[in-house]
Amino acid sequence: MNKLLAECIGTFTLVFLGCGSAVLATTNPDLGPGLVGISMAFGLALIGMAYGIGAVSGCHINPAVSLGAMLAGRMPQGEMFRYWAAQVVGATLGALALVLIMQGKIGGYDGGYGANGWGTGYLGEFNMFSALLFEIIATFLFVVVILGATGKGAATAIAGLGIGLTLIVIHIVGINVTGVSVNPARSFGPALFSGGAAMAQLWLFILAPMIGGAAAGILFRTGLLDAEAPETDVRVDAST
Hints:
Layout: H1 2-27, H2 34-57, H3 63-71, H4 77-102, H5 128-149, H6 159-178, H7 184-194, H8 196-200, H9 202-221
Helix pairs in contact: 1-2, 1-4, 1-7, 2-6, 3-4, 3-5, 3-9, 4-7, 5-6, 5-9, 7-9
């Protein structure tokens, strides 16, 4: 249960702080954090949780990461399903906390809660194919970084920093495309309370990250990205 609690808290934090920064930007564009600020909020929240709960659960806080880890042979399937449940609960609670806070805004609030999307009226107005392709590629690269940074021979002490910085860059590139998911749980919570188009388009932000995460996990399962063992100095005694 300690692992599941850690995953719930970690995903709650990612949604509450990351999507919270996007809600603030929507509420007051002049005082909000802007694109780079939102990107940093997601990445820094992940870095904080990596060091806060990494030793407990590995800080997946993302069903696509758990899928990749399972397919790479780093966690059993049953545990992956339990992680998924904890992550969805955490994301839902994080979005709910944002809803409750924004309902207390004097003058009212009728904006969204950081839900992902695509198409006319959504940020850069990219089509479905662009959204699907970006989410698959971005999640694949993200999970490759995670599995590589936490694998054998990696400098795991600074893994959280590298993973968080990668998430920042992914957001800088992709916010105008989809708002950036690369995480089905992160998409589910805000979509649940935003409703409408966010719920109708949620399928893409479940499917695409899972495809990307699975591809990364399978790649690591093959051993093609395993670190090579250091060469040993073999000497032969010519007198024998």
